[in-house]
Sequence to fold (326 residues):
Amino acid sequence: MVRTLFALALAPALLAGAAAQPPAPGTDLSGYREYLLEAADAPKNGAVTVTFLGTTTLLFDDGETQLLTDGFLTRPPITKLLNRIETDPKVVDAALKKAGADRVKALFVAHAHYDHAMDCAHVAQKTGAKLHGSASVLNIGRGGGLKDEQMALFEPGKELKVGKFTVTVLKGKHSPPLKGLNDDLGQEIAKPLKQPAGFRDYKEGGAFDFLIRHGDRVALVNCAANFVEGARDGVRADVLFLSVGALGGQPKEFRTAFYDQTVSKVKPKLVIPIHYDDFTQPLSDSLRGLGDTPAAFDFVIARLKADKIRFGLMQGYTRAQVFAGK
Ligand SMILES: [Zn+2]
Fold:
């Protein structure tokens, strides 16, 4: 089962040729440097910044309130996935500190797979944030000792105020499952999940996306590379955080439909790819891609160019301004 992940992470490096040195893991993304977004200062006067912390972990900040998605920061190395995994508090705390995550009021977790949810209990405890999630995600919280009053079950479609942010949880759809790796879609974590646990114990439990408003500006965080036909009709966003995890390996018809049902529907001015990085490697400012990341990037970039929409890449710990101040 872990072989698929091995293949995703290592195949391109192995295919790259017979180097004398062992190949660096993950896929080199230096060819996409021209798309890197400019690093921003701390937000002021109503500006909103987002710091990218790998996979679908994003720290939104308006200078007063911070919101976090997923909070997956342990990023266990691939060798650890063969055994049971657990949150590494030192790694998580250091990443939160480096990102300046000291005013996080709410943590929204997209689904309960380990690469989104495994650190949610610790992150909520450390920051004091309320954990928002599916029933499965809340069972990860409970297993980590989180009290029910610090957790809230998703109510899709309902607007939730967090400081000056308004968050609406939208029903989403997980990327097409990979056999033996994440083919548990719709299955639930039915009781509190204690660590250490096998990565396969983190059942999907339903997949969700987040519409985040601040004043009259809107960001959509599309947490998995899939779509429900027509589900984003009438949804508009200035900035779209677009998961490209496992997109590059999909047939052209799927990729086209995915783009049509996400970007073409919400008509953003800026698209920022997420879940593109090799998450078996530590979070850093030189993240490398998964095996199929270049194929996904090339596809998305070509469509965006034709639509005159900007593609903006973020490296680990990049803080970018997504909404300007007044
Ligand atoms: Zn997943």
Q: What stands out?
A: Residues 28 and 50 are 24 Å apart (CA to CA).
